[in-house]
Design goal:
The structure is a single chain. The protein is mainly α. It has a single domain, classed as Amino acid/polyamine transporter I (Up-down Bundle). Helices cover 70% and strands 0% of the residues. It has 16 helices and no strands. It is globular. The chain starts with 10 loop residues before the first helix and ends in a 5-residue tail after the last helix.
Length: 420
């Protein structure tokens, strides 16, 4: 007798999953980076990206309905176009995480640099020690729990909401004038930075099949999640713009702590710093766990060395974790030398996300074969968004080019087992 699978996801559960998947440590610096890039125009960028990400999220949910056993964006592309593009999509995720995670770590520790005068060299050394420790914890089988991940998400929400709340009495309306101090092109540049904050919709799209009432609840959960996330992101940026005087240097490194110090006092800034450090330290283990599993999946498909798919006695993909640690070390050193900035890392991660979203839009058309206009809207909007935004990533797209070049150059070597 076959037991029917019980669908257990309701609206509140889905909202919690979506919010926790998208909210990340990058928001610690993005309000300041986008404000410095586009001035008050950053608010236009935040609202625009938030609205455009709605059909993208709906597209991923529809893809998961078509492929309920799908394991992510690489699976969508693999089913539509074959192993080559599927593996390449996986590479575009796996090899940009070594840029994104060190940048997140440095963004949190930048608050310690701002608040306590932590020397620059010590900041980078501490970032490496934390990442190294997180890798070791993964190797010995210690991973972040769902409760701990929920606590991290809660800390981000508290920090953003507190920043918005206390800033209201201190906001100066004239701070939002002129609206476009650097022209419309700066809004595009800010939007490219913002994509770092919205990576994550694809990670939970598979829950679309678990809804009790999918036709109603799926769309409701996506819309409510977007309102929450977009409101927190845009609101915190508005707080930075409205409270921090123009030209303040720390706006790009510790913007939320700076707003809290100006609006409430030094004690609030200290609290923000403690929360920021907790966020990035706590998230490191989860990111390494998920990325090492992706590396193992790519190894099983033959596009990375086979040894990366082997678990150790603790159940960890040890070789995959060590590859990540080596990549983290190289990127941190390059960032320490000043060759790559946190904003550059944000562009690199966002660039890969936008490219893979474009591939998924094509996969959507091929796999679902939409017939109604409403079914065509998500891939069409996604495609227009991808084409419009890609030029703003500029020279950072060379990283995706190098990843693709390396993939096509090395895949035959891995598949023949010449490098195990």
């Amino acid at each position: 007798m076959v037991t029917e699978h019980k669908k257990h996801v309701n609206v509140s559960t889905a909202i919690a999953l979506y919010v926790s998947s998208v909210l990340g440590g990058g928001i610690l610096v993005l309000p300041g980076l986008t404000a410095a890039t586009a001035g008050a125009g950053a608010l236009i960028a935040w609202v625009a990206v938030s609205v455009i990400c709605l059909p993208i999220a709906l597209m991923f949910g529809r893809l998961s309905s078509a492929l309920p056993d799908a394991g992510g964006v690489s699976s969508f592309v693999r089913n539509a176009f074959g192993d080559t593009l599927g593996d390449l999509t996986g590479w575009l995720y796996f090899w940009v995480i070594p840029f994104g995670q060190p940048a997140v770590m440095l963004s949190g520790l930048a608050y310690a640099h701002y608040e306590f005068g932590l020397p620059r060299t010590a900041t980078y050394v501490l970032a490496w020690v934390i990442l190294c420790s997180s890798c070791i914890l993964n190797i010995i089988g210690t991973r972040i729990s769902a409760h701990a991940q929920s606590a991290i998400t809660g800390a981000i929400i508290v920090l953003l909401f507190a920043t918005i709340l206390v800033s209201f009495p201190k906001v100066h309306a004239e701070a939002y004038q002129p609206l476009l101090p650097h022209g419309w092109s700066s809004v595009g540049s800010a939007a490219a930075l913002i994509m770092w904050a919205y990576v994550g919709w694809e990670n939970v799209s598979s829950i679309a099949e678990e809804f009790r009432n999918p036709k109603r609840d799926f769309i409701i959960s996506i819309v409510v999640s977007m309102v929450i996330i977009g409101g927190l992101y845009a609101g915190s940026t508005a707080a930075v713009l409205g409270v921090v005087p123009p030209g303040q240097q720390d706006i790009q490194t510790a913007p939320l702590a700076l707003v809290l110090r100006l609006a409430v006092g030094s004690w609030a800034s200290w609290l923000a710093t403690a929360i920021a450090i907790m966020i990035v330290v706590g998230s490191a283990t989860a990111i390494i766990w998920g990325t090492s599993s992706l590396g193992a999946s790519l190894a099983r498909s033959g596009s990375l060395p086979g040894k990366m798919a082997i678990r150790n006695s603790k159940g960890s993909f040890q070789s995959s974790v060590l590859v990540l640690l080596a990549a983290y070390t190289i990127v941190l050193f390059v960032m320490y030398l000043g060759w790559v900035q946190i904003s550059d890392a944000a562009m690199i991660v966002g660039g890969s996300a936008v490219i893979t979203y474009g591939l998924c839009a094509l996969a959507y058309v091929r796999l679902t074969r939409p017939k109604r206009l409403t079914s065509w809207l998500p891939p069409i909007i996604t495609g227009i968004f991808v084409v419009a935004l890609l030029p703003f990533f500029g020279k950072m797209l060379v990283v995706q080019f190098l990843i693709a070049f390396a993939y096509f150059g090395l895949r035959s070597i891995f598949r023949r087992g010449l490098i195990s």
